[in-house]
Design a protein that fits this description.
alpha+beta, Gyrase A, domain 2, Cyclophilin, seven-stranded mixed beta sheet
Length: 222
């Protein structure tokens, strides 16, 4: 696969894949990131992944030209990397209108009943392509194209922790209270980020998530 390497700011290298969101690219990014973490940990401060890129933040004084050559070598190598064993997480979601702020409007826009929209949203098995925006926020691919919806033109100042939302071709879960511009279609009682735990978040890139609907009574019972 052809990758593009370029300077990013004063102390990082941005590695870009073709601008396509798919599981093959996600797997390639995770595997390359594992190799980098394993083979040159002394040269990097951290790495950040997205759908189609990997940013490598370097230790002070690292020679970026030499490091780009090294990164290309690592990518092409057969160096051992941790076996990727995605976990399937079954996540309860309450689609009650008291939580689902945008469910009625979204159903009307798509000419669907609320029950149909919930069915379309909860049926797929989603892939965690990467974590970002907020600590533990999973960007999930696999949304039924019927539900693809541009983000809100005016983001909300406050979205509650656990809110399940649709933005563009993606769905995701707000792990903490925050501003947000996605359409809220439900809420999960499951906590996705807790600083008192080690690690604070339990899901990883390439994991799978399957939503299943629960009632308001079940939500409060959990």
């Amino acid at each position: 696969m052809f990758l593009k390497y370029q300077y990013f700011g004063e102390g990082a290298i941005l590695i870009s894949w073709p601008n396509v969101i798919d599981q093959k690219t996600s797997f390639d990014i995770v595997r390359f990131n594992q190799k980098i973490q394993s083979l040159i940990p002394q040269l990097i401060l951290e790495t950040v992944t997205t759908y189609c890129s990997l940013t490598v933040y370097l230790t002070f004084g690292a020679d970026r030209n030499r490091l780009i050559s090294k990164l290309k070598e690592i990518y092409q190598s057969n160096a051992a990397h941790q076996k990727i064993n995605p976990t399937l997480w079954k996540v309860p979601v309450c689609y009650d209108l008291s939580f689902a702020l945008d469910l009625e409007n979204l159903a009307a826009q798509k000419k669907l009943s609320i029950e149909q929209l919930i069915d379309y949203h909860s049926k797929p098995t989603y892939t965690v392509d990467f974590l970002g925006f907020l600590p533990g926020f999973p960007y999930l691919s696999g949304l039924n194209p019927i539900l693809n919806t541009p983000r809100l033109s005016s983001p909300r100042a406050h979205i509650e922790k656990g809110s399940v939302a649709i933005g563009g071709k993606q769905t995701g879960i707000y792990p903490v209270n925050s501003p947000g511009g996605w359409h809220i279609v439900g809420k999960t009682p499951k906590s996705f980020f807790d600083v008192s735990k080690t690690p604070p978040g339990f899901i990883q890139p390439l994991d799978k998530i399957k939503f299943y609907p629960i009632s308001l009574e079940e939500f409060h019972r959990d």
